[in-house]
Design a protein that fits this description.
2 copies of one chain form a homodimer. Chain A is an alpha/beta fold and 356 residues long. Chain A has 2 domains: 154 residues, Rossmann fold (3-Layer(aba) Sandwich); 183 residues, Up-down Bundle (Dehydroquinate synthase-like, alpha domain). Helix content of chain A is 44%, strand content 17%. Chain A is built from 13 helices and 13 strands. In chain A, the strands form 4 sheets. A 6-stranded parallel beta sheet of chain A has the order 2-9-6-5-3-4, sandwiched between helices. In chain A, β3, α2 and β4 form a beta-alpha-beta unit. In chain A, α4 packs across α5, α5 packs parallel to α6 and α6 packs across α8. Chain A is globular. At the A-B interface, β1, β2, α3, α4 and β7 of A face β1, β2, α3, α4 and β7 of B. β2 of chain A pairs antiparallel with β1 of chain B.
C-alpha cells in the first residue's frame, strides 16, 4: 500500500476593515474598487437599494441585483435566484460581489460568493448596527433552512469590509436595539468594560469600536470555530431556536437578548454564575421587549433546539457564563452538554417570565 | 477613519491518501474510522451500494444515503435531497461523510460536506479509475447547473482518500477509457514519461501512480487554482462545453479525450505545438470513440463555452500545449485568451472530423 500526504499551501488572505463616517459618499470606496479587475455587482434589498445602492452603482459603474428584505429572504430560494442571475449576467471569476445591507444580505451574499465558480471576490458594506458589530465580521456566511437558522454556510472571509457609520443615522430605535444585543453579549462573554460602559450609556460610541475589536480578536484566534470562537454563540442556542419557531418573525437581536437572559439564568442555575450579577443582567435587558414568540410551545422549542450546530453525540451544548466578561472555558471547548433535566427549571422560569 | 486588518490563522489540514488493493475489505479503513467521534454516513449510488456500501456500513456501524447514479444526479435537486436527509438523520458537526463511488459522488458529497453546518469531516473512497486518478484528488467539490458543469462548488480538502485498486477490477472497458483520458492528459501537460509509457501499454499499472503523484504535486503548489493548477484544465474547456450540450449524456472521460485532441489542434493552429507531435496525439486517441454529441450545433457549443470558469473580461481562455509534457506558461497564468476568429479553423476541423 502507498501512503501519500497532500499538504496544500493555502494562505488565508487578510480582510481589510474600514470604519468611519462618510465612507460610501467619499471617493474612498471608489478608489478601492478601481483596483478590481472585472465586473462589480452590488446586491441589496429594495430599501437599501434606494438609500445607497443606486448612487454607489453609478459611482462604480456597477450593476445591482435586488433581493427581498427580511430574514425570510435568507433561504435556498433567494440563493437559487442570485446564482441564476449571476450566470445570466455573465459573472466570472474576476467579478466582485458587494453585499450592501444588514446581516441577512451580508450572510447570504457571502455564501453565494463562496460557492459561485468556487469563489468570487467579496466586499461587505454593512448598513445596520448589528451588521457592523457582528454579522459582517469573522467570515461566516449562511443561509437558513426549514430546520433552523444558519444551518447551511461556509467560512469565507471577505476581501474588505466598509462600515460607514453614517448609515446608522437612519436606523429605527428597534434596529439600534438589535445591534445593542450583540454589543452587550460581547460585554458578557469577553470584555467587561463594554458592559460597564453600557450600564452608564448604551449610546456611547466607544461601544461599537470595542465590540468590533473584541470580535476580531476572537475570530483571528479561532476562525473555524473549533474552540474559543464558540463563546460568540452565547445567547444564540436559545436565540436561534426562538427565531426558528417564530418563522423569523422576531428580529435576531431581540432573540439574542432573550437568549442571553435565559442562558445567564441557566449559568446561574448550574452554579457557574452569581445571582448578584444575574440581577445586573435583568436590569440591563429591561430596555428590550422580551417576549417569547406567539408560536412558542415547549415541544416545538425543544425540537428547534435539537438542530443547534454545537450539538455533538446527540447532546445539546451551551456556552455558560462564569462572571460578567468571562465564560466558563470547559477545557477549551467553551461549552458544556446540558441534559434535559438540567434545562427543566430554566424553561419553567423562561415561560413564567416571558410567555405572552 | 479606523483601519483594522483581520488575519485569521487558518491552518489547512493535510489529506492522507491511501492507495492499494483490498483497502475496503481489510480492517484498515475500519481502524481509521474508529478514531472518528460521531456518526458516519456513507453516500453511494444504487450500484456501488450493492457492491461495497452495504458491507462497509455493517463494518463501520454506519448509515447509508442512496443517490441516483450518473452525471444528471450531480445537481441542486440531489443536493437539496442530501441536505434534508442529513438534517432528518440528526447529522451534527461531529458527523463524518464517506463518499463512496465515482467522480459524481465524490464531487457532490464533497460539496455537501463543505456547506452542511459550515463543514463536516469528509472521507473519499473513489471506486472508478477516473475518480482515483483525478476527481477525488485536489479538494475540488462541485455540482452542475443548467448553465454548465461544475459551476457551483468549493475548495474543501477531505480528511482522507482511500483508493482501493480492487474496485477497478469490476470496471467496464468504457469506464477504464474514462480514466485513461485523465491519465493521458497528465502525460500531455506535465509528465512526458506518462505519455511514453502509455504509448507502449495503456494498462501499465505505473500510469495510475504517476498520474496521482503528478496531480498531487500540482495541487499542493496552487490549491486555489490561481496559476499552475489551471494546466489541469487542458482539454476541459472544450470537454465541459460538450458535456453541457449533451445534457451529460457523454461520459466525462470521452469529452476530455475529445477536448484534448481539439485543444491540441488549437495549440498547433496557434503555432505553439508541433504538427509532428500532434500526429502522436491523433494516433493515441484513436482508441476512444470520439464523436461530437448528437445535440451539437456550433451555436449551442459557443454558448456553452461562454460559461467556462477561466473566462475573464468576457474572453474565453484556453490552456495550450508547448510540447508533449509541457504547457505554454503565459507568464504564470497558464492560459491565453483566444478570440472567436482564432477559434474558427479549429471548429471547422473539429466538425469535419468528429461530427456524427
Amino acid at each position: 500500500m502507498h501512503k501519500i500526504e497532500i499538504n496544500p499551501q493555502i494562505a488565508a488572505l487578510p480582510t481589510e476593515v474600514f470604519i468611519g463616517e462618510g465612507l460610501l459618499k467619499s471617493f474612498f470606496l471608489k478608489n478601492f474598487c478601481t483596483h478590481l479587475k472585472g465586473k462589480i455587482i452590488i446586491v441589496a434589498d429594495p430599501l437599501v437599494k434606494n438609500l445607497y445602492a443606486l448612487d454607489l452603482a453609478t459611482e462604480l459603474g456597477a450593476k445591482i441585483l435586488t433581493i427581498p428584505s427580511g430574514e425570510q429572504a435568507k433561504g435556498s430560494k433567494t440563493c437559487q435566484f442570485l446564482l441564476d442571475e449571476l450566470f445570466k449576467m455573465g459573472a466570472d471569476r474576476d467579478t466582485t460581489l458587494i453585499a450592501l445591507g444588514g446581516g441577512v444580505t451580508t450572510d447570504l451574499v457571502g455564501f453565494i460568493a463562496s460557492i459561485y465558480m468556487r469563489g468570487l471576490a467579496l466586499i461587505l458594506v454593512p448598513t445596520t448596527l448589528l451588521g457592523i458589530v457582528d454579522a459582517a465580521i469573522g467570515g461566516k456566511t449562511a443561509i437558513d433552512t426549514p430546520f433552523g437558522k444558519n444551518l447551511i454556510g461556509t467560512i469565507y472571509p471577505p476581501k474588505a469590509i466598509f462600515a460607514d457609520l453614517d448609515t446608522l443615522k437612519t436606523l429605527s430605535e428597534k434596529e439600534k436595539l438589535n445591534g445593542l444585543a450583540e454589543i452587550l453579549k460581547m460585554g458578557l462573554i469577553y470584555d467587561a468594560s463594554i458592559w460597564e460602559t453600557a450600564q452608564k450609556n448604551t449610546q456611547d460610541p466607544d461601544l461599537l469600536l470595542k465590540a468590533i475589536q473584541g470580535k476580531i480578536e476572537i475570530v483571528q484566534q479561532d476562525p473555524l470555530e473549533r474552540s474559543l470562537r464558540r463563546i460568540l454563540n452565547f445567547g444564540h442556542t436559545i436565540g436561534h431556536a426562538l427565531e426558528t419557531i417564530s418563522g423569523y418573525e422576531i428580529p435576531h437581536g431581540e432573540a439574542v437578548a432573550l437568549g442571553c437572559c435565559i442562558e445567564a439564568y441557566l449559568s446561574m442555575q448550574l452554579n457557574y454564575f452569581s445571582p448578584k450579577e444575574f440581577e445586573q443582567i435583568q436590569t440591563m435587558y429591561s430596555c428590550f421587549p422580551l417576549k417569547l414568540p406567539s408560536t412558542y410551545t415547549r415541544t416545538n422549542f425543544i425540537h428547534a433546539l435539537s438542530f443547534d450546530k454545537k450539538k455533538v453525540l446527540g447532546k445539546i451544548r451551551f456556552v455558560l457564563l462564569d462572571k460578567i466578561g468571562k465564560v466558563v472555558p470547559f477545557e477549551n471547548t467553551y461549552c458544556r452538554a446540558v441534559d434535559p433535566h438540567e434545562l427543566e427549571s430554566t424553561l419553567d422560569w423562561m415561560e413564567n417570565r416571558f410567555l405572552r
